[in-house]
Write a structure and sequence with these properties.
116 residues, 2 domains, 0% strand
């Protein structure tokens, strides 16, 4: 990967992180989102995450699969954190995060120790 590609990825990732640190309403407004469309936005988010995970799995690249599992766990735990801050139910999100984390550990261990 060239330095330019690394710089572009860093800038893209940095922009996303900065948007995530804004308040939800500021971040949503900055991205042009409206509260009435959040159900569809979230459905698209999860559909594309599933597509990216399938692509990672089909690639067979261990680092890519582990990265996707880590991302899925992080999203689930972040959602649980957000719901906990609002004193809402978090069980489903914690379970999803634990499931993805468990899959991460198991896949990582089999990648290291399974030579079949």
């Amino acid at each position: 990967m060239s330095w330019l590609q690394k710089a572009l990825l860093f800038l893209t990732f940095g922009s996303l992180v900065l948007m995530a640190y804004r308040t939800f309403s500021q971040g949503a407004a900055a991205q042009g989102h409206r509260a009435q469309q959040f159900d569809g936005i979230l459905a698209g988010r999860y559909a594309f995450m599933a597509f990216a995970f399938v692509c990672a799995a089909l690639s067979g690249l261990t680092w890519m699969i582990l990265s996707m599992l880590a991302a899925l766990a992080a999203v689930a735990f972040w959602d649980a954190y957000v719901y906990a801050q609002a004193t809402e139910e978090t069980d489903v999100h914690v379970f999803a995060g634990a499931l993805a984390s468990g899959a991460f550990v198991l896949y990582g261990l089999t990648a290291v120790f399974w030579k079949g």
